[in-house]
Amino acid sequence: MDRTQSELESFVLGLVWQLGPCSAYDVRKALSDSPSSQWSGSAGAIYPLMSRLERRRLLASKEERNGKRARRSYRITPAGIGALRQWVGPPLGSDVATVVYDPLRSRARFLSACALEEQLRWVGEARLALEEVERRVRHWNTVYGDVMRDPFVRLVARHGELDLAMRRAWLRELETALRCSPEA
Amino acid sequence: MDRTQSELESFVLGLVWQLGPCSAYDVRKALSDSPSSQWSGSAGAIYPLMSRLERRRLLASKEERNGKRARRSYRITPAGIGALRQWVGPPLGSDVATVVYDPLRSRARFLSACALEEQLRWVGEARLALEEVERRVRHWNTVYGDVMRDPFVRLVARHGELDLAMRRAWLRELETALRCSPEA
DNA sequence: CCGCTCATGTAACTGGTTACATGATTTA
DNA sequence: TAAATCATGTAACCAGTTACATGAGCGG
Fold first, then answer.
1. pTM exceeding 0.85
2. A36 beta carbon < 7 A from strand D?
3. Nearest nucleotide to A48 by CA–C1' distance?
4. B73-86 pLDDT, tens per residue?
């Protein structure tokens, strides 16, 4: 019962709970629409995963058929809700809170390897890239406005807002450091 | 030459550049000491990876021997520096800036599935977990103080600071939302 | 009727992980 | 002298990916 699940398995479990009865395809779309690129929502990941969750009795499915078109609709079981609660916590595992991985920051770490001109161009492109992310987040917020009635989903969106503001501020600091002391 | 490399391959290339001549073991330690849990620095990842980088002429190595103990010391080649610069950018790939994955936020999204009491406990544990992360970051800052002379490494550390401050603020918002409207 | 989206899946691959194995050196 | 760390690697595994295959339904 308390088999440890992968992060994606638990997240999908949560999605099915949150979306209500839905198909693997719906889950795939929710993942690929997400502004986070953590998971692509690839078919090769999702279909076998949801079958596994059904075998473990955390999801249940039924075939819906309108016309010739088949559609397997999943819903979460009581055991599934239990597993979801256990994953969400408390207690929180020791690895739940960590320094998140930011590819932009990773690259910034090695900016000294580049010439000043490149560094300035880098900052400019990084700002544009962050603005693009901002647009994607805003788009998600409008499309998924309905699930936003959940106060915690709203807070997750708020997290995205705060995160982007923080990264913009950080980039400004980087830029001023660059302009004031061109010695790197 | 412009073979696309994995994120870890490029990051290791950067580490060797930043640390100066060093062994695979040094790289492993740098990765496992890092407060980010993105990469474990497992032997099974690093040793084959650095061999690959050497085959591609991005790293060069020589066997150092003091007593019976062998130690393979790697340094970055000019081609390696070129590859590093190319990875760092500009130009920045479209996937470089993204909404980062935060397991804490992922779990928060489904907090409505838990009872109010659990939600309050969750917030408390999350705060403790973030404080633990803060301690790990501070420890890293003291241990790796020498590479901190690089202004961009300093800015990466600064990013960690800002990130933690942001997440603490977000958690406070979550908590007040919880205390004011206990309806979730 | 062509192309797009809906819908479900499989096969091959990949970039990591854990666990194991070995042996030298250092420290308590 | 026992335990920890230094140091190098391999083997088995695993959770994702891309790419492929198939077919229904729908809008231009």
1. yes
2. no
3. C9
4. 999 999 999 999 99
